[in-house]
């Protein structure tokens, strides 16, 4: 019987335990033990149901283009629950000069697939529009200028489209997906397809034009009708109960002749494999004594998020623009990072006639709010939303969540560092590093890697 320790009960850890349990059910002689420091599983996936309000405390969806979360949902019998975002009303706004300005239609991140739609846009000055129009003509120059190695997202976007595009949509889009500073984020790690386009075509706009035939009609986001929490709940239901240890903080791990040792306050256990899925900081300190060279490769910045959900019973009492929500560029006088108009993004999230909004704080604002109570945090969120949207009525439901250092920042050189980390990890038999610090930040990436690792362990 092969014994596998899974350290960390977030999305990656639960998925790994689920996949091992599936393999055991198929007859592979496996036993997993899932160690979770807190009192609940799921990590930052958490859905709160209050009356008919479905309030996501963490991710509200996955990116449709990545198939792995959907495949898992279907396998878990949730095919009927899989639900697209309402892309007929999809619009994302950016807060510029205290006003919400719509991002033009047909954008792939900061690259327009349709230059004519750009002309209608009030978001950009004539100068920025000119920079866009001129980019295809600079293809040769841009291809020649493409660096061999990695660079920051800021350098990359600036080279193609200039400062205004970087500031108005580059920076806010990246902070709405990767939570970080565009001058530090690695373009190779977070915008890989665009790096390839630059190498092949020079011009990103030209590259998109040749691909646009294949552009999918699918919605951008996919979720589950009853919330993302259902994905975790279904997996947990398929994991043997005696595999799960809650309130079981792992205090040390070590590796010796006879395998892996994992120590908690309740004692030390021996395992044949160790799936380390804890947050990067925790993983780093647990692995430091095992391999001093691994730890420095795992040192990375991470951003914290504070999420506040507000449910209102009567949407008619105030109006908001049509769309999914808005992003706030760095340097704005708003404390917000972003906000989602949940009832417009998804069906079935509110009682009839209700409205649901989520406010996000990141960076310094999140660090400060991390130390405030729920009431104060909610008051700040409501005030900041009101500064953008106009006066808001008293919410019927308020949910506050803090996710400290929840989103690791893939800095310039990330892929190179991960290659080195990978070769260190491979030097240890039965060790796996999983989670959002390494090979992707989205739920689908975590699901893909955790399942692949569990299958490999089972197949060995
Ligand atoms: C602030 C923030 C959000 N979401 C996120 C943050 C970062 C802060 C943090 O968690 O610490 C994180 C995020 N957002 C997204 C992912 C998944 C990325 C992936 O799977 O590759 C992740 C990890 C998808 C997304 N998130 C967003 C995009 C861009 C969508 C577009 O092109 O319009 C993507 C791919 C934009 C976004 N993102 C957010 C809002 C309110 C919006 C705009 C409106 C909305 O849709 O709700 C919230």
From TrEMBL:
It comes from Tunturiibacter psychrotolerans. One of its GO terms (cellular component) is cytoplasm. Keywords: Cytoplasm, FAD, Flavoprotein, Heme biosynthesis, Oxidoreductase. The keyword Ribosomal protein does not apply. SUPFAM superfamilies: FAD-linked reductases, C-terminal domain (SSF54373), FAD/NAD(P)-binding domain (SSF51905). It comes from the Bacteria. It catalyses: coproporphyrinogen III + 3 O2 = coproporphyrin III + 3 H2O2. Its EC number is 1.3.3.15. The keyword Protease does not apply. GO terms for biological process: heme biosynthetic process. Its cofactor is FAD. This is Coproporphyrinogen III oxidase. GO terms for molecular function: oxygen-dependent protoporphyrinogen oxidase activity. The gene is hemG. It is found in: Cytoplasm.
